[in-house]
Amino acid sequence: MSQIDRISPIHKAVQRNDARKVAQLVKQDSQCVREPFCESVPDLPLHEAARQGEMKIAQILIDAGADVNASGDWARTPLHYAAGHGHLKMARFLLEAGADPNAKNSFGWTPLLTAVRGRDPGCMDIGRFLLNNGCKADLNSLVSLGEISRVRDWLKDNPDAIKQAIAPDDLIDDAVIMIGLKIMEEVGYNASLEEQEKIIANYQEIISYLQAAGADINALGSSGIPPLFTAISSGEPALVLFLLQHGANANQRVLLGNGISEDAFYYNHGEQPQEIRNLLVQHGFKR
After folding, report:
1. CA-wise closest residue to 179 among 227, 139, 249
2. Which residue from 42, 47, 123, 255 has the fewest beta carbons nearer than 10 Å?
3. Using alpha carbons only, what angle is made at residue 215 by residues 143 and 282, rounded to the nearest 5 degrees?
């Protein structure tokens, strides 16, 4: 029997967004709200409802006794799932139901950090919401949200802020991702170099503050690549240029998951614009 065949009826009903079936099952046996997804995945039905943003089902489960702070796969709570999948209404609902805004998963991430590192629409809005509703700030999240003055003050007040960050090697990469998203939101993918530079100018202080406090612009983050490679992936020449001008190593190589060592020139399958390749050569790249 396959793993999916072993999924309990309550989980199948939640996955199908079948609120009537969920209500029927919890009426028959309220203990089903505590059934794990399968033997290897401890997520409960409320985790799945939060992931999908199904508030009606979440209410049914909570009314039947589901633990709003239950620890699931990698110690994630339902709020982690709502935050990471861009469900603002669900996040608000869970907090009102007693969810811990500062619960940490196995990697030390709170729902706040999960939100700002999410890729679903609305994740940044959830991050700001959580920051204003009981979730403790952390340096990585403040960087990801583009909170320039708060990042400055955080670093000023704590000399060991970089070392104490949840993910210190991701800090400049977080800033690069944030700036890249700002460029996309405000001027679009095909914006001119000048338009990109204007956006970068609004947020470049964050990277300067981080570097002054000891953050390494060439650090390999949790994704296994340095900030320069993240900028190359974004396809935004101005962001690549900014990093090269501030110490990024044009000749840095990374070891990809397939065991192949790759340089910046050919990273991302060599699909970067010629303008970016020219910038790498101008800043010392050697084949």
Report:
1. 227
2. 255
3. 100
Half-sphere CA count of 270, side-chain side, radius 13 A: 1
How far apart (Å, rounded) are the C-alpha atoms in residues 200 and 203? 5
Task: Tell the residue number behind the tokens 């991430």, with chain if given.
Answer: 109
Task: Please say whether the beta carbons of 72 and 42 come within 8 A.
Answer: yes
Number of Cβ atoms within 10 Å of the Cβ of 233: 17
Sequence-separated (6 or more) residues with CB below 8 Å from residue 112:
83, 101, 127, 130, 131, 135, 136, 137, 138, 141
List strand residue ranges (DSSP E) for the chain, in order: 253-255, 261-263
Q: How many residues does the chain have?
A: 287
CA–CA separation, 39 vs 3, rounded Å?
8
Averages of pLDDT over each 10 residues, the chain, 287 residues: 67 97 97 92 96 97 98 97 96 97 96 92 91 95 97 96 97 96 87 92 97 97 92 92 96 78 74 84 88
Instruction: Give residues with Cβ within 8 angstroms of 1, minimum separation 6.
Output: none
User: Angle formed by the axes of helices 88-96 and 123-131, to 10°?
Assistant: 30
